[in-house]
Design brief:
Layout lengths: L8 E11 L5 E10 L8 E5 L17 E6 L2 H5 L7 H15 L1 E6 L8 H12 L4 H7 L10 H9 L4 E5 L3 H9 L3 E6 L10 H11 L10
Parallel strand pairs: 4-5, 4-6, 6-7
Antiparallel strand pairs: 1-2, 2-3, 3-5
Helix pairs in contact: 3-4
Length: 217
C-alpha cells in the first residue's frame, strides 16, 4: 500500500553548466523545492531532454532515467577512493544526459548519519569493521536514508514512473512504496579500486547491492 506523500512544489529553477575534472561538459536545469519533509536543501538536476526550461515533459515520453544520489563530500568533491560515490556521480550525470532524466542530489551524508559521524565511522573501519558495522557501533542505523524527499521532488517535477539508475534495492522499494513506480532498474558500473574493495563487498553481502564483484560469491 502506498504511503501518503506530502506535497512539495518547485521553488526555483535555473540552468547551470557542469564541468567534471576529466573534462566532461554538460548543462543541467537545477531545481530547488518548497515543502520537503526533512527541511534540507536537496536538489534535482534535469539532464538531457529534461535540461531545458519550460513546461513539464510530455506524457508520451518514456520514463526518465533517475538516480537518487546521496551526498558524499569526501568522494564527490575531494575524490576519496574509500567509496565509489564520486565515480558513480560522474557516470550518472553522463548516462542521464544521454537518456534524459534527473539526478537527485540528496543531503544524506554517510548513509544518513552526517559528515562528522561518517568520519568517526571511517576510524572504526580502519580498526576492522565494515561500513555498516561501523555505523551501528556508533549507535546509528546501518543505513538511515529515507527517500520520501526523492519521491516528493519527482512528483513536483511531474514524474511518477522512472527507470532507476541504482544498484541499491532499498531505493526501488522505498520509491515504489511512496507511489513512484520503478519501471526498470538500471545498474551503475562497478568502480572497484584497492581502497574500496572491502566497502563494495559489504554493500553486496550486507545490503544486496547489484554489484558483480570477482571476489564475492
Amino acid at each position: 500500500m502506498d504511503e501518503t506523500l506530502p506535497t512539495a512544489t518547485i521553488r526555483t529553477q535555473v540552468t547551470v553548466p557542469l564541468r567534471f575534472p576529466d573534462g566532461y561538459l554538460t548543462s543541467a536545469r537545477v531545481y530547488t523545492f518548497h515543502g520537503l519533509v526533512d527541511g534540507r536543501e536537496h536538489l534535482a538536476f534535469g539532464l538531457g531532454d529534461r535540461a531545458a526550461a519550460g513546461d513539464r515533459p510530455a506524457a508520451d515520453l518514456p520514463p526518465p532515467l533517475v538516480r537518487p544520489h546521496s551526498e558524499c563530500l569526501t568522494g564527490d568533491v575531494f575524490g576519496s577512493q574509500r567509496c565509489d560515490c564520486g565515480p558513480q556521480l560522474r557516470e550518472a550525470v553522463e548516462r542521464i544526459a544521454e537518456a534524459g532524466g534527473y539526478l537527485l542530489y540528496l543531503r544524506q551524508e554517510g548513509r544518513g548519519i552526517g559528515l562528522y559521524a561518517k568520519l568517526d565511522a571511517y576510524a572504526l573501519q580502519d580498526g576492522g569493521l565494515d561500513t555498516y558495522e561501523a555505523n551501528e557501533a556508533l549507535g546509528r542505523g546501518a543505513d538511515e536514508r529515507d527517500y520520501t524527499v526523492a519521491a516528493q521532488m519527482l512528483v513536483a517535477l511531474g514524474v511518477t514512473r522512472v527507470a532507476l539508475l541504482s544498484n541499491n534495492p532499498d531505493k526501488a522499494a522505498q520509491l515504489d512504496r511512496l507511489g513512484v513506480t520503478v519501471d526498470d532498474r538500471v545498474s551503475t558500473g562497478v568502480h572497484l579500486s584497492p581502497a574500496n574493495a572491502h566497502y563494495l563487498a559489504a554493500k553486496v553481502t550486507r545490503a544486496d547491492h547489484a554489484l558483480d564483484l570477482p571476489f564475492v560469491p
